[in-house]
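User: These chains co-purify. Model them together.
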Amino acid sequence: MVIKLNMKQICDLVFFNENDYIKKIEFAKELGFNGLIFCIRFGEKEIKEYCSLIEKIENEQNFFCYPAIIFNDFRVVRKFLNAKGFLVIFECKGKRAVEKISKKFGIDIVLTDFLSVGTAKFFRDNEIFYGLNINSLISLQNLKDLFFHLKLVKKFKVNLAAFSFANSYKEMRDWYCIANFLTLFDLEIKEAKLALCNYEKLFFRRSEKFIARGIELV
Amino acid sequence: MKILTSLREKKRYILIKVLEGNFDEKKFLNYCEKIFGKFYVSKFSLSFLEVNGKKVIKCSHKFLPHVLSVFLFLDDCIVKIVKISGTIKSLSESLV
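Assistant: Joint model of the two components:
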């Protein structure tokens, strides 16, 4: 059975852990999420095994689950730009790293501490999501950067993806709190909700039917 | 002293359900002050009620997003927002 999420259904991204994934699914249901994206860091598990494991969990739990892999190294991520079946998340720090990915297409979500006008335009044109780690904001240190980044995101209409990135189920939060938190940064509630549910494009891009933008197998 | 109805501040009642850990009101207030500052928090007109054994937070309707976002920063409990309403009466359906 394949569960599909539509554009109005809300999704969260959490780190995969074999010990507490069932608890994470239970809490996701309680907190009003319709699906979970489980992510691991590159090299933790073999990719094929991991994807089939997530598919198995989805069928067992009858809850939308999708695999994702976080890459830190630019050389490694180049090999997986056209991969199918999982989301490619690229985590980078600094101006140089962001400018490097500005020449590449195929990354789904970028987690970065640097965003300029040029990169914001590139993200918009190539449908790359600007990832927002809610758990990193809880330390209160990254808030000042976030104000500026979200201004650019709003101005250039970059796709925003706000996730909890919870390591354990105790770090998961209600989606309505996350949406309201984003409204404090001058986003409207509609835009904030979109940041939690507008991932249909990403799942389609990573499906077997997708060939290139605007071209798909029928 | 009576206040004109037009001058009275609108309020919101937030019905919460604690899924994990203990919800401590003092800790919640401390987090509010840590994030927004004492002066700003005084405008929230926060108060904590307990109706039929369930926890309800009352706040000014202007500062509802601020109050809700504080739940993100609580590190030892997970809280679910069950319902937000302008009157306790309309919360009664969820309270039963």
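Residues 210 and 216 of chain A are 5 Å apart (CA to CA).
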